[in-house]
Amino acid sequence: MVAVASSDADLRRRAWDAAAGVTDPEIPVLTIDDLGVLREVDVNGDRVEVAITPTYSGCPAMNMIALEIELALSRAGFREIHVRTVLSPAWTTDWMSEQGRRKLKEYGIAPPLPASTRRALFGVEQVTCPQCGSGDTELLSEFGSTSCKALWRCKTCREPFDYFKCH
Q1: Helix (H, G, I), strand (E, B), or coil: what is residue 93?
Q2: Cβ(7)–Cβ(32) under 8 Å?
Q3: Distance CA 150, CA 160 (A)
Q4: How far apart are CA 17 and CA 144, in angstroms?
Q5: Is the pLDDT assigned to residue 157 strictly greater than 70?
Q6: Measured between alpha carbons, how far is 113 from 106 in angstroms, rounded to an integer?
Q7: Sheet strands side by side (includes 160-164)
Q8: Between vectors from CA 161 to CA 21 and to CA 128, what angle results, nearest 5°?
Q9: pLDDT, tens digit, for every residue of 45-61?
């Protein structure tokens, strides 16, 4: 019986790893695991069920992410695949991994502030420039290159940059 449980755990791990490697189509340096979008992977016999939560309701990338999960699991040898979208609880930037935050910064996008450090009721108080590290920045637009980002500018190095919005 232990061998069966171990086999089930190995199968689940293989399915999780396959799904976790899917990248965000809007920010290709991040996996859905980095983002915290991948919530659950269950394997029951030949059936794999994956639960994903969008970064915000109406996120246009979710259909592509679901398709990429199905393809990744199929390449990993799984045949009966179901991807479901879970809206509650709502996704939060606190679900992002530290590795994901680091990847964002290295890519030139200011990562979201952790909830424990946010003090502003609306918006954010200060965003650090991912290029030079200065805190002397300003919001240019609530909307950046995608709906989940805002456009900021550093007053020190004068470079514009995206900020991944807090949710």
Answers
A1: helix
A2: no
A3: 11
A4: 31
A5: yes
A6: 16
A7: 109-110, 160-164, 149-154, 137-141
A8: 90
A9: 889 999 999 988 888 89
